[in-house]
Write a structure and sequence with these properties.
By secondary structure, this protein is α/β, with parallel strands linked by helices. It has 12 helices and 36 strands. Strand 22 and strand 23 form a beta hairpin. The protein starts with a strand and ends with a helix. This is Glutamine amidotransferase domain-containing protein.
Amino acid sequence: MTIEFSPLLPWIAIGALAALAALLAALGLVQRVRGTLVRAVALAVVALALANPILSQEERAPLSTIVAVVVDRSQSQQSPERIRMTDAALQGLKDRLAQFPQIEARIVDAADDPDTESPSTRLFTALNSALSDVPPARVGGAIFITDGQVHDVPGINQPLGFDAPVHALITGRPDEFDRRVEIVSGPRFGIVGEEQVVTYRVIDDGPTPDGPAEVTISLNGQEIARQPVTPDTDIPFRFTVPRGGNNILEVAVAPLAGEVSAANNRAVHVLDGIRENLRVLLVSGEPHSGERAWRNLLKSDAAVDLVHFTILRPPEKQDGTPINELSLIAFPTRELFVEKIDQFDLIIFDRYQHRGVLPIIYYDNIAQYVEKGGALLIAAGPEHAGPDSIATTPLAAVLPASPTGSMTNEGFYPRLTDEGKKHPVTRGLEGADSEPPHWGRWFRTVDVDRPQGQTVMQVADGRPLLVLNRVGKGRVAMLLSDQGWLWSRGFEGGGPSVPLYRRMAHWLMQEPALEEEALTAHATGRMLEIDRQTIKGDPGPATITLPSGRQESVTLSEAEPGLYRTRLQTAETGLFEIANGDLNTLVHVGAVDAPEFKATVSTTALLQPWADKTKGLVHRVAGEGNQVDLPSILPVRGAVRVADAQRLSLRMTDETVLKGVTSLPLFAGFLGLAALLLVLSATWYREGR
């Protein structure tokens, strides 16, 4: 109870009256006036009544003690055994805390942040968020249910924001072990055909069995090496970059029986293959209007080393000019088609005919070059339909179509075939969507028999115009017209000659992005995008194998003709394997060095310092069989000064909340009236004596 004053007059007036009363009382006492003491008491009571004293009593209710329970739901906690332990420990802890009505449990699940590429276990961040609106005096403690692999443990001298015990209930068993593999170093880019070195390491956590680890290394989904390695040793691995674009090197270590997780038994290194100085040999059979279109296109690419020859004077041309007076350069046939033919990435025969410049055996060399993985482009003109056509040489073995010997000379709009609308070489060419196509006409084509491979462009009546085919390990393209230069010159508005020629050249050089049957995937943050390129129709669903080993089936929807796509947000991070039919690909979602996969063996070491500092307890919940062993709860009034080795100590708060105030004026009503009557009666009685 407390006494407060609510004066009826200003304090200055009450003080003046009290001073006057005190002066009169003092004067009466000095002069020994009878009744002075009674009068002084009466005046004091009147002054007190004017001060209006009020008796107040507060009604308070005790506040609950807040205990934060942070549950680790990160990927390292997703094994069936740890999920079972975590759920059982959480339920048991709820039951124990429910026995104390004054304790309020705040339970928060700490999962991986879906917006980050590098998953990690951030339990202290979740703890601060859960207690952000709680006064420090009300916090009774914090309890973590985790495997102990926490990646945001603050420094031991940093403040937590409250003075209460920190406890940890550790899932997993003390004899756990795990084998994992990490990429130590490797290049980000590599030149196609050159050797690169990636260093990896197999790491054993816990009491793993002795002996070497069996490692399998794959490149772009194809196994290229198997080797036994010693754990905890850096192992360099040398390989040759096979192609341009994205290359995925996968290092997988054989799992151990009983290890914690196989999700970290594979590591990937992504390397972009770069073609250095692509070497292209362009042989023009004679000067013509379209010759410069090819030359300008190839010379405009800084990554292309172009070797261009134009046959100006064939051997049969005899005009009597002495050889020593000719300024022409002799065609180095042996050097180009025997000694250095394998150094070229692409050979182009532009309106070339067999006129005795190349010995017949050299055509066979070119055919073998193609079958071994080379690229050949035939840009055909009228000479291809004549008696000197290269189709009459051994090169015919790799050509996708044979000429009939006739030409068609009439205007037409080049059109895409059904396959051409789906093929990445011709799909989406600007102007192809309208009818007739929104580009200029051509006026000459070479008639051929039924071609092999894919016909992606045609004349209006269905005759082939552009044919693509695979021969052995190599590729061949035939453009059955020499009129493409009309597009380059802007005739009737021109056409997409540059993208068409460039795509043809890159497809011939086996650029992965232009494969007609391909499955690719890439990730942006946690968003996974899968593309399926096909010219055969709906490829059906794709199967995704997640890092945890779980499989999902996803539907691919047609985004463009011949291109099927799906996008999905992933909850897990790590190495994903996507399969569709005979094709499969790998993609890594998130950072390749994410902390969540570096160590998965449960541990008490990381949280023990904070438990020691705050008088908390770190306890493994694994009991016999499938049972969980949970400590009991120990409420403590005041500061927790001693740690209990068997119980979870919680500091109980003394905080209260004001529910109401009862006020009683002492000089109000009958009580005040009785007090005034009493002093006045005493004064009257004394005067009457």
